[in-house]
Amino acid sequence: MSQPSRSPTEAVIAVIGGSGLYAIDGLADVREHAVETPFGAPSDVVVEGRLSGVRYLFLPRHGRGHRVNPSEINYRANIWALRSLGATDVVSVSAVGSMREDLPPGTIVLVDSFIDRTVQRPRTFFEGGVVAHVQFADPISARTANAVAAAADRAGVPYRRGGAYVCIEGPQFSTRAESALYRTWPGVSVIGMTNMPEARLAREAELAYCTMAMVTDFDCWHEGHDDVSVDAVIAVMKQNVESARTILRALADAPPSAPCPSHTALDFAIMTAPERIPAQARERLGLFLDRVLPPAGGS
Length: 299
Hints:
The chain contains 7 helices and 11 strands. It has helices spanning 75-84, 142-155, 176-184, 198-204, 230-251, 279-284, 286-292; strands at residues 12-17, 28-33, 46-51, 54-60, 89-98, 108-110, 113-117, 160-161, 164-168, 188-192, 208-217. The N and C termini lie close together (9 Å).
């Protein structure tokens, strides 16, 4: 079966805003999209606009007013909506706790991997009669992460690069025993509640994905600091939000442009014989399948 390539010529940057980031300043030609998806409603309307001529899409992960908890987020609907509107790259802006002494609150970390500790969230689009296995060894797109790093450099915003993000179910913070355990795992830098299965679904949707992790606290492992509290998190979060907005504005000056394997993640990933895919599944996943499979009823 031939597999046509997908090589977007123009970046459309989707920003998923985490705690504290509910809008992007400075967008021109703004309009809102109330997207209906086969997986239900996204967290909120998707706001579209332009920065320096670059098309941006913005979706607040928790909804405006922060009304959706991490386990209630409809991750599939969010990713489907962004892809349906033409997104090529996703920048996930996420509040996290630090698991390292050298990453104090206020630090921006561009992580390079994830450890998924979530237990109750739908984590794939491919079910109900169609099976796909995408490569996920390197969940962060170098194309997008390099562009974000370069934007931070141009804007003079300090950041750290590398390390794994442990994603827990939440909405409670970790116990001391859990926090101490996660710190013993090789490569762990930060902990959060939202980037899984978001990153998995972005890969299935052939979107280039990266995370801008904004450290708000030391979790509860650090004996020299108070236990995590909402007040403490919000205070640092307000400082982090302006840094994130600065980087996102600078990103418009040189958006992602390098080729990316994420954009062809479904090449050779569909395991189900096309003629065996139920019509309902084919319709539900047409946004993804139409590129890599022959037309329904065709050869």
